[in-house]
Amino acid sequence: MAFFLYQILIRGDENMYDVTIIGAGIVGTAIARELSRYELKVVLVEKESDIANGTTKANSAIVHAGYDAVPGTLKAKTNVLGNSMYPKLCQELEVPFKQIGSFVVAFNEEEVKVLERLKKQGEENGVPNLEILPKEKVLEMEPNLSDQIIAALYAPTGGIVGPFELAIALAENAVENGVEVILNSPVSKIDKTEEGYKIQAGERVLNTKYVINCAGLYADKVNNLINEEYFKIQPNRGEYNLFDKTVGNYVNKVIFQTPTPISKGVVCLPTVHGNFLIGPTSDYVESPQELQTTGKGLAEVREKGLKVLPNFPFNKVITSFAGLRAKVEGGDFIIEEVKDNKGFINVAGIDSPGLTAAPAIALEVVQILEKITGGLKEKENFIRERKGVVHFMELSPEEKADLIKKDPRYGRVICRCESITEGEIVNAIHRPVGGRTLDGIKRRVRAGMGRCQGGFCAPRVMEILARELKVDITSIVKDGKNSYILTGPTKSRKKDN
Ligand SMILES: Cc1cc2nc3c(=O)[nH]c(=O)nc-3n(C[C@H](O)[C@H](O)[C@H](O)COP(=O)(O)OP(=O)(O)OC[C@H]3O[C@@H](n4cnc5c(N)ncnc54)[C@H](O)[C@@H]3O)c2cc1C
Predict the structure, then answer these.
(1) Whose CA is nearest to atom 18 of ligand 1?
(2) Which CATH superfamily is domain 15-94+161-233+328-388 in?
(3) Where in the chain is the domain with CATH 3.30.9.10?
(4) Range 59-85 average pLDDT
(5) pLDDT at 6
(6) CA 148, chain centre distance (Å)
(7) According to the model, what pLDDT value does residue 493 have?
(8) Boundaries of each FAD dependent oxidoreductase domain copy (predicted)?
(9) Measured by CB atoms within 10 angstroms of the end CB, which terminus of the chain is less buried, N or C?
(10) For residue 10, what pLDDT is reported?
(11) DSSP structure string for 278-308
């Protein structure tokens, strides 16, 4: 068996893949996991150093109920279906998910009319149990909301999830089911061949029958490598403030304001890990790299947040961040085989609710591939469950003692804000598609996610990374390829003459 695997590995690039998925965000990883159910040779290629390094790492983390999307669109279909898939999916993959429900609040009669329209639209889309609640009921359920609110649309199927945890879990499970993941390998060239396509991905050349373009903010550029240009991604930035766990239960549901035609507005919500999030803004920007937060954006977050939660303690902020929506003209998701290039499938323009819709988008892609290939054969031995990371502090005293006896590294706390042990960090490094960077560890086990944002634990995590990966500590990066943190020992620089 070992010899057979070795044969496959050394033959590497000469081999023909059935499917090459470009982009390891939530969409690419959901497709990879879905395709790993079938007898297919699948590779997932990512330009960055980790899974979920694009938009999937910076969004509101809401599993939307599905009343926003226009009935009949791909957005509406995949949102509602995706939402219904979340409980089982997150249970199978041991990913944090809470179906806490959501409110859209109205401050005047005009906004109540919008709530009525949203309710009708949601019902057409198939969203269950939508209700418009009067002020008294809303304030009874959420006493910290402004008393200027006059009604709210209640969607009990709305929820929250750990977005990068889910993408990482999907990738891990896909790998367990035979998918190959190649990181640090930007796709820069795609040529047509007799059997399909030849792809230049970093230093690798991949021959493949089918291509699935899930490159998020770069999906237009990847499309244009081989197809005629027919859509353009317009990055739209959303800025956020993230707050300390001491205010994590300020409200219990996701609180939306009445939406505008461009965005769902500023949202206030708890996160699955007990922090609190307020944002995002919505501003078109020129480039897919404009991820900085701005004074103007964060002032808007504050103003709109205080409108709904007038006494919210903004001094509990621990960090701010921004994410970019990959918008396209027309507004709907693009999920289709390209007309003039058979076997090339674009999955593009996946802005919100792409996180919610991803599991259902994966099913759409499977349907397209079924049509192209004439049918896919299911594996007999698909592993549907994935063991999640151990959260030491959530264990019972007996379980903790047992674990420390087996591995004393679980008795050593490295991140004091989040109480993350060395054992958890080592596990995060050695899992399938393990963390290789400081942020990769943060996203897997939350070391550095707390109040000090890694101020204390970052050097310790770097030491562990260097030790476990057997590399020099100066080669450990924060996130992207060149985000080095150390240059060498202190006082080693020669004095300039
Ligand atoms: C502010 C904001 C708030 C949002 N809130 C929500 C929400 O609450 N709920 C919800 O459902 N959705 C939400 N969304 C939308 C959701 O985050 C996105 O739809 C989703 O993350 C898109 O995933 P993706 O996999 O398509 O893109 P990405 O996560 O960006 O993944 C694309 C990947 O492709 C890689 N790539 C690009 N070019 C190449 C190349 N040439 N070669 C190899 N790899 C390449 C990138 O590095 C990246 O990792 C929000 C989005 C934003 C910006």
Answers:
(1) 354
(2) FAD/NAD(P)-binding domain (3.50.50.60)
(3) 102-156+236-322
(4) 97
(5) 39
(6) 34
(7) 62
(8) 18-367
(9) C
(10) 40
(11) EE---EE-SSTT-----HHHHHHHHHHHHHH
CB atoms within 10 A of CB 319: 14
Question: In the structure, what pLDDT confidence band is assigned to residue 323 with cuts at 50, 70 and 90?
Answer: very high
Residues 435-447: tens digit of each pLDDT: 999 999 999 999 9
Residue in 239, 249, 261, 263 with CA at minimum distance from that of residue 64: 263
Residues whose CB is less than 8 angstroms from the CB of residue 378 and which lie 6 or more positions away in sequence, other chains included: 37, 38, 39
- 64 assigned to active site: yes
Looking at the domain that runs over 102-156+236-322, which CATH code has it been given?
3.30.9.10
* DSSP state, residue 410: G
SS (H, E, C) 306-332: HHHCCCCCHHHEEEEEEEEEEECCCCC
User: Quick check: CB of 57 below 6 Å from ligand 1?
Assistant: no
Domain boundaries for CATH 1.10.10 within the chain: 392-475
Best probe residue, ligand 1, of 239, 345, 355 (max atoms within 8 Å of C-beta) = 355
Distance between CA atoms of 76 and 71, rounded to whole angstroms? 6
Share of the chain above pLDDT 90, in %: 88
Residue 132 DSSP SS3: strand
- Residue 17 exposure: Cα atoms within 13 Å on the Cβ side: 29
Residue 119 parent element (H or E): helix 109-125
Supply the DSSP string of 215-258, one letter for each residue. Answer: -GGGHHHHHHTTS------EEEEEEEEEE-GGGTTS-SSEEEEP
196 in ligand 1 pocket by Cβ < 6 Å? no
Q: Are 165 and 95 in contact (CB under 8 A)?
A: yes
Residues of the chain with CATH 3.50.50.60: 15-94+161-233+328-388
Q: How confident is the model at residue 397 (pLDDT cuts 50, 70, 90)?
A: very high
Ligand 1 neighbourhood includes 60 CB (under 6 angstroms) = yes
Round to whole Å and give the CA distance between 30 and 364: 11
Confidence class for position 3, pLDDT limits 50, 70, 90: very low
Shortest-distance Cα residue to atom 3 of ligand 1: 59
pLDDT for 7 equals 39
Cα(42)–Cα(29) distance, integer angstroms: 11
> CA–CA separation, 64 vs 159, rounded Å?
7
